[in-house]
Design brief:
117 residues, 434 Repressor (Amino-terminal Domain), 7 helices, mainly alpha, elongated
Length: 117
């Protein structure tokens, strides 16, 4: 079994199959070392090729609304009124820094999600 850099999806799939075969390997053995190297290579490839980006700010707000059972009216204090809520959720108006701070502080929406555009 030859270990090589993971450059393509095919290489990635092959590495995952090898990891599955080596999964029960004992640490600090040749098989365990191969498993360790392969998992490191797979993690590095996943970080680069399968990067998970934060959601769109409006989608993050809608998701949090759903989690907390909030209506559009409930968002008015954070966004500056009912009309502003509609404009934000329809993407007709951008969030201001003040709005982002309130949403982050009061509704615990991750700042990273609110800052992306």
């Amino acid at each position: 079994m030859q270990i090589k850099p993971i450059k393509t999806e095919k290489d990635y799939e092959e590495a995952l199959k090898l990891i599955e075969k080596l999964w029960d390997a004992t640490p600090d053995t040749p098989r365990g070392d191969k498993l360790d190297v392969l998992t490191t290579l797979v993690e590095a490839y996943e970080e680069k090729a399968h990067q998970i980006l934060p959601p769109d700010p409006v989608e993050a707000i809608k998701f949090r609304m759903e989690q907390l059972g909030l209506s559009k009216t409930d968002l008015a204090p954070y966004l500056g009124g009912k009309n502003r809520v509609s404009e934000i959720l329809q993407k007709k108006r951008n969030l201001t820094v003040r709005m982002m701070k309130k949403l982050h502080k009061e509704l615990e929406i991750p700042a990273e999600s609110l800052l992306t555009s």
